[in-house]
Amino acid sequence: MQVFDTAALPVTDRADAVSVAMREATLSTHLVHHDPAEVWLRIEEHHLGNVELTHVVTSGMDTTRTRRQTAADNAQVIALSMRMVGGSVLERYGEQHRTTPAAVNLVELTEPYRSRIARGTDGWSVKIPLDELALPDGVIRMAWPRVPSSPVHAVFAHHLRSLARQVPRLEGGRSSALLGTATVALARALICSAAEDPRSMGEAMADSLLLRVQAYIRAHLTEPGLSPERIAAEHHISVRQLYKTFAAADLRLEQWIIALRLEGARQELARPQSANRTIAAVARHWGFSNPSHFTLRFREAYGMTPREWQTLEAHHL
Questions:
Q1: Which of 20, 148, 164, 214 is most buried, by CB atoms within 10 Å?
Q2: 298: domain CATH number?
Q3: pTM higher than 0.85 for the full model?
Q4: Which CATH number is 195's domain given?
């Protein structure tokens, strides 16, 4: 992980340091601070294989990337970003696009752009090399203003939020590279579906099916009606295809869901605020209608009963 933070710099040096750091992070060539007296920036960079995951917290500013700069550095990269706090206005191809918190925004860094961050913002982004996406010419330009309306938008946004929450445990090793590969597959499906490009959409959606289904399951994990039939219908596939998709990844659908629910229940039981909740209530919340069955599965997974785990964690506080 690489970190840049103006908190470690004298106030008089921050504006220049921010300009240099933002040029490296966003490939912009010109930066204007809205309030030179209030300048701050924190950048964290993490690498997931060939994908760069970046967290940026910054004061208000305008950034510009010119045609001359794109020709000079030839950066074959796109960025998919999401503001957690604050918004911005992005201008490309003579059009303006306003971003809002929780919406994924696409920037093709091979092309000029202008961005205005009206107030301080906090956001995460992934930078992906174009050769990793392997998209036909023109697809990104068609997609960029329509990304928030893509049927894959919610899945990719959930994926990016998950990366943001788990990033301290993700960087390095084989699992990190696999997450980078998964991010590329979801990004490709997001862009192709937004562009409505029939040449590439079918292949991109097929390649990302397992990832999209898994993201959907995680987002609806506590809902009692999360059945194979519902999951299949939401993704316009048959139940048989759903099972085959998981089997191809050496996974069993029901067992995978149960494992996620057990882990969710285990984490909830460890929280101090859950001390007064009954085991049955926690079990129901995580989709187990039978408390005895929940206790049995919990013991099989973790070697102790839910009550024993809750008591053990309470003593650690």
A1: 214
A2: 1.10.10
A3: no
A4: 2.60.120.10
